[in-house]
């Protein structure tokens, strides 16, 4: 329903107990949305890096491996900070439980940390490395590292998270890919950056598309993502991601002056150089914007969970609709 | 339910506990006889040494303790309801009085000012000790476990305070204690069970609103109680959480309610998140595969 056509029938307000929440809001601290971001950056960067290694693009590969390594190093630190002490992270490695995305994720992070560190080290030591088992392993563990955090929130009793269970991993995958492309663009020379640029643009478009689909399917529950603090983060994320993709598209491939510099027309060469600098600046700005967009996206999803939990009518309405649906 | 043969000595979870498995125990909380005395809240706090957590004056009827959490394992809800007694505006006073009296007999509505009946709903809430427990499935350390009595308990020495159980409980039972970061909840007095004693809240309850026992037997008792109430015209009496076919496989601690569950801050149709695990993992896997394919595709085409 568009904002202009307002329903004349007021939606019936479900009964609540003094407006108190039915499900508890998360107890997670701000480290967690940043962990979602760094885990995504690490995972997508590992896939990007491995592909670049195998595709014979050592410059892009080495930067992306560095990005992945930073991601897998920062991630456990954020988790330890949230838990309070290091030993508490190790408690998660006592058991493996497929019923708990938290357990699966702890193991993924630990395994990916090892594989990525090894692959990153080998690629930094040997510029001409063609790739092997460590790269394959890091990429194979990196992709789920980027999407399991979506499963972590949708495998919960919080309505706006749980009901987004089909789309959320795709939103996280797209956001992670955009952040990996953004990080790569910041460090990679122009002549090696083309795949990252294309990925950044494609991921930004995919993220917007899947998010729109997710909100549509959530119906009234999408309020949690569109209002309050979550809504603000969502708007900033959307603006940053769109602007970042546009900057990437405008930036094209010109960090360095174009070959036309050797043109006999001096003024033409100067113009080219100015344009090249502008394009370079645009690409850098695009990288920063995509990274910022990815951070804000995770914050938006994180905050949406709190807002959904704090509104008991969401749980009641979702469950009543399900009961009526199956009862009819 | 009627006519079902109850085997009182069926051990709960024999696969896990073998010889040590005991029959599954739980609570039947019959809210129709709850008088809101809060003896259960006090007894629970005292026996389990649960810290104080006063919220001050809430303005929510006689309820100043709010809801279940890390420092409240029993919670008494107070609901004040004004319901029409069913006479037209401007009806003679004696007709209103008669209708109100009728309502008192039939529905427990007390006469109140105007043409409204007034009634209290009181209910002592507690951890449901679900057959399919979301908290237990979510716990990444194995801290939450199923006891030999079929109850769900947190082992505090290995709880790492990750908080995943908090968002995995459809009832909002678990919460983190701010000082130590760990999660605490009702243990159904595990220590007392091991000493063949009933839980502190059930022992303290002066009206037997909280009944403790073997779950199968409690379900029989509850079915009988609903029949009695229906026979007295209390058609709004219904059981909540007694059905093993529900979204959490039935509660270990279930209720008799006099209104819809949401009136008591209870979800009308709770479903354990694990029921959706298949979709959750498939979507995460498909998204991961799509990401790999998408990134690989970015390297195709002209070499720029």
Describe this structure in words.
The complex is a heterodimer of chains A (328) and B (304). Chain A has 328 residues and is mainly α. Chain A is 73% helix and 0% strand. In chain A, α1 (31-54) packs across α7 (168-187) and α7 packs antiparallel against α11. Chain B is globular. The longest helix of chain B has 21 residues, at 277-297. A 4-stranded mixed beta sheet of chain B has the order 9-1-11-10. In chain B, a hairpin with a 6-residue loop joins β7 and β8. Helices cover 29% and strands 17% of the residues of chain B.
Secondary-structure blueprint:
The complex is a heterodimer of chains A (328) and B (304).
Chain A: H1 31-54, H2 58-83, H3 86-90, H4 101-125, H5 133-154, H6 159-162, H7 168-187, H8 194-218, H9 223-226, H10 228-251, H11 266-310, H12 312-327
Helix pairs in contact in A: 1-2, 1-4, 1-5, 1-7, 1-11, 2-4, 2-7, 4-5, 5-7, 7-8, 7-11, 8-10, 10-11
Chain B: H1 14-17, E1 25-30, H2 39-48, E2 74-84, H3 93-107, E3 110-111, E4 116-126, H4 134-138, E5 144-146, E6 152-154, H5 164-168, E7 175-176, E8 183-184, H6 190-194, H7 200-204, E9 210-214, H8 215-231, E10 238-240, E11 253-257, H9 277-297
Parallel strand pairs in B: 1-11
Antiparallel strand pairs in B: 1-9, 2-4, 3-4, 5-6, 7-8, 10-11
Outline of the structure:
The complex is a heterodimer of chains A (328) and B (304). Chain A is mainly alpha-helical.
Write down the overall mean pLDDT of chain A: 91
Roughly how much helix do the residues of chain A carry, as a percent range? over 70%
Mean residue pLDDT of chain B:
90
Number of helices of chain A: 12
Total E-strand runs of chain B: 11
Q: Structural class of the helix and strand makeup of chain B?
A: alpha+beta
Pick out the low-confidence regions of chain B: none
Task: Specify the biggest β-sheet of chain B.
Answer: 4 strands, mixed
- Which strand order do you get reading across the main beta sheet of chain B? 9-1-11-10
């Amino acid at each position: 329903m568009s904002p202009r056509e307002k329903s004349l029938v007021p939606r019936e307000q479900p009964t609540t107990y003094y407006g108190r929440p039915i499900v508890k809001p998360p107890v997670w601290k701000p480290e967690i949305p940043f962990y979602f971001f760094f885990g995504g950056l690490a995972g997508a960067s590992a896939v990007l890096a491995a592909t670049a290694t195998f595709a014979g693009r050592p410059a892009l590969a080495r930067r992306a491996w560095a990005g992945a390594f930073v991601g897998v190093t920062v991630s456990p630190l954020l988790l330890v900070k949230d838990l309070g002490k290091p030993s508490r992270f190790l408690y998660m490695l006592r058991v493996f439980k497929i019923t708990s995305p938290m357990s699966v994720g702890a193991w993924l992070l630990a395994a990916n940390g090892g594989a990525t560190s090894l692959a990153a080290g080998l690629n930094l030591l040997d510029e001409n490395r063609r790739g092997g088992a460590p790269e394959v392993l890091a990429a194979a563990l990196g992709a789920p590292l980027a999407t399991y955090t979506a499963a972590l929130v949708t495998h919960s009793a919080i309505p706006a998270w749980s009901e987004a269970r089909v789309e959320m991993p795709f939103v996280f995958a797209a956001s992670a890919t955009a952040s990996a492309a953004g990080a790569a663009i910041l460090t990679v020379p122009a002549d090696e950056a083309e795949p990252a640029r294309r990925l950044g643009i494609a991921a930004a478009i995919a993220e917007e598309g899947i998010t729109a689909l997710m909100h549509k399917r959530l119906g009234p529950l999408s309020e949690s993502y569109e209002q309050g603090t979550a809504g603000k983060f969502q708007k900033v994320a959307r603006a940053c991601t769109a602007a970042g993709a546009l900057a990437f598209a405008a930036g094209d491939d010109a960090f360095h002056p174009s070959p036309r510099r050797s043109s006999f027309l001096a003024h033409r060469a100067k113009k080219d150089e100015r344009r090249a600098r502008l394009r370079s600046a645009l690409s850098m700005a695009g990288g920063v914007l995509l990274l910022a967009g990815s951070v804000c996206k995770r914050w938006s999803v994180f905050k949406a969970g709190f807002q959904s939990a704090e509104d008991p009518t969401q749980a009641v309405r979702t469950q009543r609709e399900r009961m009526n649906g199956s009862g009819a | 339910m009627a006519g079902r043969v109850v085997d009182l000595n069926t051990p709960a979870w024999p696969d896990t506990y073998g010889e040590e498995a005991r029959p599954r125990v739980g609570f039947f909380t019959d809210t129709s006889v709850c008088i809101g005395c809060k003896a259960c809240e006090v007894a629970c706090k005292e026996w389990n040494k649960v810290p104080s957590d006063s919220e001050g004056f809430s303005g929510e009827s006689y309820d100043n303790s709010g809801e279940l959490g890390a420092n409240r394992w029993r919670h008494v809800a107070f609901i004040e309801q004004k319901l029409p007694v069913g006479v037209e505006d401007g009806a003679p006073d004696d007709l209103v009085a008669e209708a109100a009296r009728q309502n008192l007999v039939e529905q427990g509505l007390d006469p109140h000012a105007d043409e409204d009946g007034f009634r209290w709903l009181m209910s002592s809430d507690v951890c449901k000790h679900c057959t399919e427990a979301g908290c237990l499935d979510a716990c990444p350390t194995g801290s939450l476990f199923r006891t030999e009595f079929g109850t769900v308990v947190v082992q505090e020495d290995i709880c790492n305070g990750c908080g995943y159980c908090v968002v995995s409980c459809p009832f909002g039972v678990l919460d983190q204690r701010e000082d130590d970061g760990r999660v605490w909840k009702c243990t159904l007095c595990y220590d007392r069970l091991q000493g063949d004693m009933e839980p502190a809240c059930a022992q303290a309850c002066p009206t037997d609103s909280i009944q403790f026992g073997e779950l199968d037997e409690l379900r029989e008792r509850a079915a009988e109680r609903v029949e009695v109430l229906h026979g007295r015209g209390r058609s709004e009496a219904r059981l909540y959480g007694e059905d093993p076919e529900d979204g959490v496989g039935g509660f270990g601690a279930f209720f008799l309610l006099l209104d819809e569950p949401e009136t008591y801050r209870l979800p009308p149709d709770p479903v354990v998140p694990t029921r959706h695990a298949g979709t959750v993992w498939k979507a995460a896997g498909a998204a991961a595969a799509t990401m790999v394919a998408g990134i690989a595709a970015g390297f195709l085409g002209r070499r720029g």
